[in-house]
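Build the 3D complex.
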Amino acid sequence: MKFQGKAKWVLLLCFVMMFSLLAGCGGSNDKTSSGGDDQETIKLGFLGALTGSVANYGIPGKKGMEMAIDELNDQGGILGKKVEGVYEDNKGDNSEIANIAMKYITRDKVVAMVGDPCTGLTKTAAKIAQDNQMVIFSSGATGDGVVEIGDYVFRNTLLDIYAVPAVVDWMMNDKGWKNFAVITSLDNGYSTALTPVFKQVIDEKGGKIVLEDSVNDGETDFTAQVTKLKKANADVLVFTGYYTEAALILNEAQKKNLDITLVGGDGLYGQDLAKLGKSAVEEKVIFYCGFSSDEPGAETAKFLENYRNRYKEDPDMFSAQYYDAVMILAKAMIEANSTDPKVYKDELAQLKDYPGVSGNTTFRADREPIKSPVCLITIRDGKFALVDTLPVHE
Amino acid sequence: MFWEQLLNGLTLGSTYALIALGYTMVYGIIQLINFAHGEIYMFGAFVGLFLVSVAGVNIFIALLGAMAFCMVLGMLVEKVAYRPLRGKSTRLSALISAIGVSIFLSTLMALIRGTNTTRYPEVMQIHTYNLGLIEISSLQLIILLVSAFLMVGLQMMVQRTTIGKAMRACSQDLEASYLMGINVNRVISFTFAIGSALAAAGGVMVGLYYNAVWPYMGMMAGLKAFAAAVLGGIGSIPGAMIGGVTLGVLEIFGVAYLSSSYKDAIAFAVLILVLIIRPQGIMGQKISKKV
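Done.
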């Protein structure tokens, strides 16, 4: 037993660390439960990826959030206190976002978390937020099972269950596409949740699914799928995954001389779609989302101008939704006259007809957002361009 | 559709084979599984990308440039991370060192380039030829021809040249070769250089074929190629070629006739089956050990 002496020390060290951890947790819990009211500044935690495969959602989101916070501070902050953003990069990783959410709650003592743009990641963080009575406001999670987690969970995005029927109607009636191929990205929670929505709606509206296939995120070899697709004689390809794989699928289609349009959700909304796809995605991809920088309303026009001046680039849906999320949170805190999540969350749930820069938002009784209209976006000359706007029927 | 899928499989498989060769050659000589090999392949892809898009050279020159760069990189890795351990510590330490190099190289590239997927520029007009049964694109043709050329060249070198003879001698018995006056360190360096050059060629062609490179592309490709090398019989050069092509074809057929979710499952189920029936792999030689 050579290590006995050493092992004792290690054990002791473990105990010390555990106790300090427990103490840390206890202390911070006390503080959060007593509310953020006695703090100097109000902190908002950013949830999103700044690197990795979903960074295209997080980076513009962070910019929108920073801009909203600066504008709030110019107007005197929230309830006379300065607002401060805390930004950590969750890399699109489930364990990272769990750690970051805990850090925001226990160490930074934020009053709300803004994000994540991905459904799966939002759910992970939302469970932690709900357990710690912290408001989480997702600006992009479109799948189901998000706000059901609890009364501290909110989102302001166009939901797939409202958008998909409008989009399928448009494909079948405006475009005359009746034969659908559907490709899912199997290890992508967003995609596996969106595919059944599309399939059900296509079925209900009398469309025919001629091919159902799958890919995995992070793969590059789609030759087998595209070869199958070519033989399937589909009018249109519905792909429910993210922008990287969409661009690579269309690249392969171009190489195999297959002329087909790819339709998908706002998971395709990433600058890399055009960068990776180049000529293969030009007017060959159409996706729906709740925001377009073309034909803006008055609110959006002001946001566009400020954003362009500040960042020298166009905002996208994520910058707009993060911006709106911060503004909606601020509004709820001011109206509730409190920055305590336990207090202002009820005010937040009452949101009705909020004229945000990413469209009008109303929370239903179950806190699900209703946003209108649906924007159909394509890529023209390497940039996102509006094809059509569709009304949403509840 | 069968023939087209077979062609897809052969193209994918020949890139696996190019990477698998490096694994098998290094293993053949020093019994080390060089887990950093996938990252050499990734570096090859990025150097090729750099040469094509920044330096603006012809794709074939970029291919040669990437191969030359990775030759040096491969030798450097061997010198820095494996040679100091050789003979002095267990084989396991060298393996851990290899994993360390692998992580170092991929994170280094992530720091330089970011983790996003980058597109390979269009460097050539892609034609499609209709051969009755199948349509083959010029890109697939180039990949198949270049891979075949490199593999035949490698086989010739190993069988016909003096250094090839030295390599074969080293793979049979490193110590005896040393006693016979072969500069063993030089042979090992050379093996790393050749293996790395082949991986770099694979990297550039994969980048070109799928239009996408990213810093972590080496991880999975390396694993697949390692599996291919084992399937073919690790240590055997023709085995790596056959193993790579077999694995590629199996994967594509998995997607084509079953589902994408079965892709890896099928490929690796076959690997396990082969190893149960023939533990030394398809082309591997049975080594009888004296106890």
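Residues 10-120+132-218 of chain B form one domain.
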